[in-house]
Automatic annotation (TrEMBL):
One of its GO terms (molecular function) is ATP binding. SUPFAM superfamilies: P-loop containing nucleoside triphosphate hydrolases. This is Cu-processing system ATP-binding protein. Residues 6-233 form the ABC transporter domain. Keywords: ATP-binding, Nucleotide-binding, Transport. Pfam families: ABC_tran (PF00005). Signal peptide: none annotated. The keyword Hydrolase does not apply. The keyword Transport applies. The lineage of its organism: Bacteria, Pseudomonadati, Pseudomonadota, Gammaproteobacteria, Alteromonadales. PROSITE patterns: ABC_TRANSPORTER_1, ABC_TRANSPORTER_2.
Amino acid sequence: MNEPVVVLENVSKHYNELNALSAINLTLAQGEVLGLFGHNGAGKTTMMKLILGVIAPNVGDVTVMGVKPKDKSAWHMRAKMGYLPENVMFYEQLSGLEVLTYFARLKGQSKKHAQALLEQVGIAHAMARPVKTYSKGMRQRLGLAQAFIGQPKLLLLDEPTVGLDPSATAEFYQTVDQLKTQGTSVVLCSHVLPGVEQHIDRAMIISGGKTLALGTIAELRAQANLPIKIRPQGLNGAVVNDLALKNYLDEHGALHVPAQEKLSVLRHLLAAQSLSDIHLESANLEQVYQYYLSQAAVQDNNHKAGV
Ligand SMILES: Nc1ncnc2c1ncn2[C@@H]1O[C@H](COP(=O)(O)OP(=O)(O)OP(=O)(O)O)[C@@H](O)[C@H]1O
């Protein structure tokens, strides 16, 4: 098996009294895309800064591509890392091409490479203009181009789709999918959950610096045991009087069925002559996320109340 790209072992980081991260464990494989989710102040940026080597943990170990990111020997590994910070800022007086060429050179890449990246993110037409004339979306695209310099082995992206219009967002995810097939590992922080699910391999949900959940969406869904939504059609209200089904029914005619009863309910529905269609919907990433956060809030309240 290939060496993991990132390993966090029992990592904690505190700022005076505040525990920004507590006992975090994570192994990120080559070509793996991890979605890192949490409310404001959950610790997402802190985790990225630890991986970048900008800060060091108080407890535990961080290893990136086999080295400690704070070590002197980590310089060669940094050239293989791309980082898009939240609210990215650039030198306003320079043109887009000048900015990107500057960053490309820092990573040992050429102006030609910078130009190709500007084309890839769709702002080549504005590359001669000063960055101060760029719209929010154009700045974000420039930020992405900066993160993509040198075909990184590891990409850390903080809110990458903020300010992007729907087509730029779709193009961004296409690039992520493509980089993944080339073996790039990605950590992607986002508050915008719809649309992310199909582009990540695993999700990590954190709150108050602690891991609430880590796994594939299917694993998290199964762990959370969230009901499956089944919408039968053509039954013309028969469900209301069906003793086997009526307890699952909501006011819109959909059935909310526990995962372990899905098959028995489906068999029951399929036996109905008038059934014309059936639609199944598993909990989406947003619902899974809300579930884990609400569970954490309940535990927190119990803890405070001494339960
Ligand atoms: N340099 C610092 N000094 C003191 N506290 C800090 C520092 N950096 C971060 N924190 C605190 O650590 C906690 C985690 O912050 P972090 O920036 O990692 O959160 P986040 O999940 O990225 O939030 P957001 O979604 O708002 O960007 C917050 O309570 C924050 O105020």
